[in-house]
Amino acid sequence: MNKFLSLLTFLFLLSTVSFAQKIVSFKAMGHEDEAVQGMSGSTAYYIKIDPLIEMNGSKLVLFFEPSQALIREKSFVNVIINDKSAYSSRLTKDSIQQISLNLSRNDLSSDKFLKIQVKTLLTVSDEKCKDLDNPAMWLRVKSYSYLNLVKSNANFFANVNIGNSFETMRAITYPANPSLHDLKAVAWAYSRLKKADAKNIQVYQEGHLPDSVKNYVVVGQLSRLNATQRSLIKVTPQRGEGLMYLNKATVSVADTIVRLVNAGGKIMAIKSLAESTVPSEILFITGADETGYEKSITALGNINILNSTFGDYLLINKAENTFFKTIDENRSKLSFRQIGGTTNFLSGIGNLSSVYNFKNSDFSFTPKEVEIRVIANYSSLAPGDRGYLNIYLNGMLIQSERLDGSGKLNTAVTINRYQHHKYNTLETEFRFYSSGGNCLNSFNGFFAEVDVDKSYLESKNPFVTSDLSFYQYPEAFNNGTTRIVISKKYAPFAAGALGEIIYELNNNINANNFPEFTYSGDMDVNDLKKNHIIALLAADDPLMKEFPDAPIQFDRKFRLYNNENNKIVYELSDSVSNGLAQIFYGRSNNAVLVLTATGKNLSEAFSSASRSITEQLSTLSSNVAISDVNNNKYLFNISKSSENLEYIDTKSVLTRFWESYNLYILLAMLVLILLSFLYIRAKVQKSQDIFTD
Fold it and tell me: What sections of the protein cross the membrane (predicted)?
């Protein structure tokens, strides 16, 4: 058994790092151990398959751990692939069990996803009705389950196109001295890669791309590309034309091959080097001139164009995006289908549930209250039957409605701003129990279905406060026009952060925020009041002075104190690379987000700041975030009257010296006073002794 567990552990470690071995673990694909709960439970995995994968000959290997309380010979596990039954079996007595299935091309859906469902029918006792709510009924699919995929270059040139190439890209390169168009192109390319679920996207200036990266995006106007890059483009755009061009080639690389051998009863890994041929995909986002380049960037923001581009190049004569929003746009009511819900016919007994996910940014504004309206049909209940609809938000029960004989359900619950988060999980659960507790003939008698078109979420009131907070980002920028302002000297370091910002502004069901890009030196200060502003600035940029309402003036050295004990919790220092972000209302009640960076690693600092403000924050009032390149993050709520903010550079040298060493000075003075007292006391005592004699 120990040998078996050692092998499993090694497979887990190997599968997370060695795609060259054609083994990819569920954990590497973002799936931790998944528990399948209940008598008849299920879980599903949707895995995007690379166009280079040859399904014939590939394998699915599942490891699962059953509850120790189950009656194994009366419990079953079923695997369904692409909605077709693939495997069914009773559980065995092993503590960790394995299923190995051969895959084929027929197992892929039309959109190239591999859909895997694990369904269970579990038994704890011989009385089925008593098993309904027994918490011991579970089976856990392990995260070291894996896909053993055959990667073939045979159909590489035929199967890969612009539309699906984003899924395999890992990096973006841009010119060393980027223009605004280059930064805009990086931002939209980054957003597109992230929407395609690309992991760990890297952004490099020209000449810094590692040799190990073979699939990447190159942005830049055609005349600014180097000779090697231009030689890879076989199509020449005409004046005013944009161009997306996918260069496909195969290259030889040295790879590490790992073999498992049994040496004296121990499983050992033997590594060796081997030459292998791998595909290389380079996608160029370019144009004959600035006009054409801008058309390519506009096309990047149109998901319909990209998804329907099945060739290796796209010449763009005219580019427009029908998703451009207007100030009058209103998204206060969202159906369950809009937030990803699908028609789900539920039948059986006990716990029957559906899960939906939504974000605050799906609405036009941060909602103060949200009405959740659930409309459903179900089989009418007989006299004595008991049925309920339970509604859960982020794991908490917020509504329970008793079912009746009508078979129709129309119920609503309103939640306040303390109950919903930036990112939310909504669950509807039907529970049914037959009359008298006799459920033997009722397992197939109850059914229910939520109407995802008529059920909806409605934002009742906007969450309006005197001060903006990161809780309201990015939906504070949903209405009106957003202007992105960049310090020119920091432009080479802002590309990655811009990608995070563009992605977040469009990470909702209506991706339609297309900001304008401007250098800070070219910004008309009057326009600061006419637009929402997202500014990536150097600390000494003169434009910083145009934000008098900012919680902190980042161009001055400052300290932040803990209000409770008056201890310093943060002090600005140029020796550490920090990203600093603050959000606030401008002079015209417009949303303003300002980011800057300090230290040597400016790119990492900007990126760290842009990521830190997009996370699920537990506070509703943080308006200042400070994060370093090691992903440490500090959140503050700073107002003009805050006593926990102090500017160091407004004090004299003597004052700063006193504040730094006052304790030592006071201690020294106390010691001198004590010594003086002892000295005088000794003199007095001596005089008394002489007088007595």
Answer: 661-680
